C-alpha cells in the first residue's frame, strides 16, 4: 500500500460514487469540529453533526487523539462514525466534493479508516490535499470505474499518459512539471473544464494558441528559464483571477549557474490585451526585461496585487500611482544571488 494522491478533488457524481466505495470498503469515518464559534450560534457544523449523531462511535479531544495515536493533531473535537449506507447518504447530501468538508462551512477534513484504525482515505481540505492508501493497480481500477476520479499515478511521468487521463476525467486542476517539454501539446485545448494550470518546464519558451482556448482558467502559473512573450491571446482568458510567470528558473542548477542577463530575456513587455482580464486579482512576473507597464493595466479594477520584480522598470510608473485600489505593489529589482536578509531590509526601507 502507498499513499496515492489525487490530482484534483473529485466532484459531483465522482464524489458520490467514491463515497459509496469508501462506505463499503472502510469501517469508520472521522470529522473535526474546530469549535470557533459563539455559544449562541448554530452553524452548519453543528447541524451536520446532529444529522450524523445516530452513527456516532466516539468523540475525542485533540489531547486524547494524540495520546491514543502518538501523532500530532490540530485543535478541535474529533468525531468518529460508523460507515453505513445511511451515514454515507448524509455525506452525499451535505457536500458536492471533499473540499466542501472545510471549516467553518462544514466539519473539517473528512477521512475514512479501516477496521484496524489505519487511514484508507485522507484529506486536508484547506490545503487541497486528498489521497487513499491503496496500490497503484487499485487506483487505476478505480479510475476506470469512476469517471472524474483522477489519481496521481507513476504513468503520469509521461506527458501523453497524463493528458490522456486528464482529458478523460475532465480535470479542473492540472500540474505539468518536469516532463522535459520544449512545447505544450496542442491537445491541451481539450481540457475544457480546467480552472487551475501549473506549468514548470524550464525549456518552454513559447505558449501555443491552444492554451488560450482554456477559457475556464482562473489560475495560471508558468515557471521556465525564459519566455519569448506573453501572447496577445492572453486577453481571451476572461475568467482569469491569478497570473504568475517566473523566468530564470531551472529545475536544478550547476555550481556557478547564472540566468541570462535581463537585457537578453525574451519577455520584455506586457501586452495591452492584459487589460481585458477584468477578473484578474493577482499579477506577478518575476525576472524579465520589462521596462514599462502598459496603460491598459488601469482597466483592471479587480486587481489587488501587482508584482513585477527583477525587471528593468525605473521608479513607479504613472499607471501604478493611478491604481489606488491596489493593496500591494512590488516593483523591486533585486540582483541575482542577494541574500534573503538583504532583500528583507530592502523591502522594509521601501
Question: How would you sum up this structure, described in words?
Answer:
The chain is of the alpha/beta class and 350 residues long. The chain has two domains: 2-145, no CATH class; 154-348, Ribonuclease Inhibitor (Leucine-rich repeat, LRR (right-handed beta-alpha superhelix)). The protein is built from eight helices and 14 strands. It has a seven-stranded antiparallel sheet with strand order 1-7-6-5-2-4-3. Strands 8-9-10-11-12-13-14 form a seven-stranded parallel sheet. Helix 1 (13-25) runs antiparallel to helix 4. It starts with a strand and ends with a helix. The relative contact order is 0.09.
List the helices and strands and how they pair.
Elements: E1 2-5, H1 13-25, E2 28-33, H2 44-51, E3 56-61, H3 62-69, E4 77-82, H4 85-94, E5 108-113, E6 119-124, E7 129-134, H5 136-145, H6 159-168, E8 173-177, E9 196-200, E10 219-223, E11 242-246, E12 282-286, E13 305-309, H7 318-322, E14 328-330, H8 340-348
Parallel strand pairs: 8-9, 9-10, 10-11, 11-12, 12-13, 13-14
Antiparallel strand pairs: 1-7, 2-4, 2-5, 3-4, 5-6, 6-7
Helix pairs in contact: 1-4
Can you tag this structure with a few keywords?
single chain, about 350 residues, alpha/beta, Leucine-rich repeat, LRR (right-handed beta-alpha superhelix), 2 domains, 7-stranded parallel beta sheet, 8 helices
Amino acid at each position: 500500500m502507498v499513499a496515492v494522491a489525487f490530482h484534483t478533488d473529485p466532484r459531483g457524481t465522482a464524489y458520490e460514487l467514491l463515497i459509496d466505495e469508501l462506505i463499503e470498503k472502510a469501517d469508520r469515518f472521522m470529522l473535526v469540529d474546530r469549535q470557533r464559534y459563539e455559544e449562541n450560534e448554530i452553524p452548519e457544523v453543528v447541524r451536520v453533526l446532529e444529522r450524523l449523531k445516530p452513527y456516532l462511535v466516539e468523540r475525542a479531544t485533540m489531547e486524547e487523539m494524540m495520546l491514543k495515536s502518538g501523532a500530532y493533531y490540530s485543535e478541535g473535537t474529533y468525531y468518529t462514525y460508523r460507515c453505513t449506507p445511511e451515514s454515507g447518504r448524509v455525506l452525499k447530501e451535505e457536500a458536492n466534493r471533499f473540499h466542501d468538508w472545510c471549516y467553518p462551512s462544514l466539519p473539517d477534513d473528512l477521512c475514512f479508516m479501516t477496521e484496524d484504525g489505519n487511514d484508507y482515505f485522507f484529506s486536508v481540505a484547506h490545503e487541497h490535499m486528498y489521497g487513499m492508501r491503496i496500490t497503484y493497480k487499485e487506483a487505476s481500477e478505480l479510475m476506470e470505474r469512476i469517471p472524474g476520479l483522477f489519481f496521481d499515478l507513476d504513468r503520469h511521468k509521461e506527458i501523453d499518459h497524463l493528458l490522456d487521463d486528464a482529458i478523460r476525467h475532465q480535470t479542473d486542476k492540472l500540474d505539468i512539471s518536469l516532463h522535459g517539454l520544449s512545447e505544450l501539446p496542442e491537445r491541451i485545448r481539450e481540457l475544457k473544464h480546467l480552472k487551475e494550470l501549473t506549468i514548470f518546464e524550464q525549456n518552454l519558451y513559447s505558449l501555443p494558441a491552444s492554451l488560450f482556448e482554456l477559457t475556464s482558467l482562473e489560475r495560471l502559473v508558468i515557471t521556465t528559464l525564459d519566455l519569448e512573450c506573453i501572447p496577445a491571446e492572453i486577453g481571451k482568458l476572461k475568467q482569469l483571477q491569478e497570473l504568475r510567470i517566473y523566468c530564470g528558473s531551472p529545475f536544478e542548477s550547476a555550481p556557478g549557474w547564472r540566468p541570462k542577463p535581463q537585457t537578453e530575456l525574451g519577455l520584455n513587455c506586457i501586452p495591452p490585451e492584459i487589460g481585458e482580464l477584468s477578473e484578474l486579482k493577482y499579477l506577478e512576473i518575476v525576472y524579465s526585461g520589462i521596462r514599462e507597464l502598459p496603460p491598459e493595466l488601469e482597466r483592471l479594477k479587480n486587481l489587488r496585487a501587482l508584482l513585477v520584480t527583477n525587471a528593468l522598470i525605473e521608479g513607479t510608473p504613472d499607471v501604478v500611482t493611478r491604481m489606488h485600489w491596489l493593496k500591494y505593489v512590488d516593483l523591486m529589482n533585486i540582483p541575482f544571488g542577494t541574500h534573503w536578509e538583504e532583500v528583507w531590509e530592502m523591502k522594509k526601507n521601501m
